[in-house]
Write a structure and sequence with these properties.
Layout: E1 28-32, H1 38-50, H2 59-62, H3 73-82, E2 88-91, E3 105-110, H4 113-125, H5 129-140, H6 155-164, H7 176-188, E4 195-199, H8 200-205, H9 207-217, H10 227-233, H11 236-241, H12 243-247, H13 256-259, H14 267-271, H15 274-285, H16 290-296
């Protein structure tokens, strides 16, 4: 018996939009927690599929975010239905919240949670919240919220609060419990033939090797002469240089370049003391198995 997907809803996402989605043979679903390398993996998939380092438009044109509420569901379905290339679809929903179809391959990315949390904090400063609320309200028919945004804590204070936040994944997918659940759910499924786990640190350390491995998992053949250009186009420096074109940032992001802020590991460790890091490790040990945490916490000692 197929289990009904869990529904995850936030201010700007609704995983219920996956209901009735017509899968095709070869579909790719990129399921990531926020700021774990989503756009990076979307870019890699685009490069492997089209086999050219130059894309004609933003990543979102080729790889729509199906759950996002600023676009009507019917519009996203129609756009995907009209695509003749191999489709690769973005979602921030954990695997238990979307249909698992044997015709599709599901890519889940992992990153050290403290690094992704720090990146998420800075991403919050780069989002035009007023415009996002307006677009969501227009789609849902709800009034635009009028309450002012609360002042943000400094990054270190915010990170410490994030570590102790006990909100469930259903309440806040980007809470520490939400991050752990997303990764643990994928970790339990990692032996399934259509589930692929990718680690941000591995992409950083060996982009060429990781792209070749992913091409193999997706059964994509790339001529050897084409590889150098594709790998270079997927590098952090190249993507940041092409930020405006790749993000199509006009509606939500304040700065396309700031979206590619740093691209390295260790930001979380830089903010916390040794005692605070120990507290973090004790916290996540309650939420995830040790083998998954060893995988997730690379490259930190």
């Amino acid at each position: 018996m197929t289990r009904k997907p869990v529904r995850y809803v936030s201010a700007d996402e609704d995983s219920g939009r996956w209901a009735g989605f017509p899968f095709r043979d070869g579909d790719i679903v990129i399921s990531t927690r926020s700021k774990t390398g989503t756009t990076w993996v979307q870019m890699i998939c685009a490069l492997l599929i089209f086999q050219t380092p130059q894309l004609d438009g933003p990543i979102g044109r080729y790889s729509p975010w199906l759950d996002r509420l600023i676009y009507p569901k019917g519009e996203i379905f129609a756009r995907l239905e009209g695509q003749r290339h191999r489709r690769f679809i973005k979602t921030h929903t954990p695997l238990d919240g979307i249909p698992i179809d044997p015709r599709a391959t599901y890519i889940v990315t992992g990153r050290h949670p403290l690094d992704s949390a720090v990146s998420l904090y800075h991403q919050g400063d780069n989002i035009n919240r007023a415009r996002q609320r307006q677009l969501t309200a227009e789609l849902t028919g709800q009034p635009v919220p009028t309450e002012p945004e609360q002042p943000r804590k400094p990054a270190r204070d915010w990170l410490l609060a994030w570590i102790d936040n006990d909100a469930s994944p259903r309440e806040q997918m980007d809470s520490i419990r939400g991050v752990m659940w997303h990764d643990c759910d994928a970790w339990r499924r990692r032996a399934e033939p259509n589930i692929v786990l990718i680690h941000y640190a591995d992409l950083s350390a060996d982009l060429d090797g990781q792209m070749r491995e992913l091409a193999n998992r997706l059964d994509i053949t790339v001529p050897e002469s084409v590889w150098p250009g594709l790998v270079e186009a997927a590098s952090f420096a190249s993507m940041r240089a092409a930020a405006e074109r790749l993000t199509g940032s006009g509606q939500i992001l304040k700065s396309a370049e700031a979206f590619f802020r740093r691209g390295t590991s260790g930001a979380g460790r830089e903010l916390l003391t040794e005692a605070e890091l120990a507290h973090y490790h004790a916290r996540v040990a309650e939420l995830a198995p040790a083998d998954m945490l060893r995988w997730l916490h690379r490259p930190w000692p």
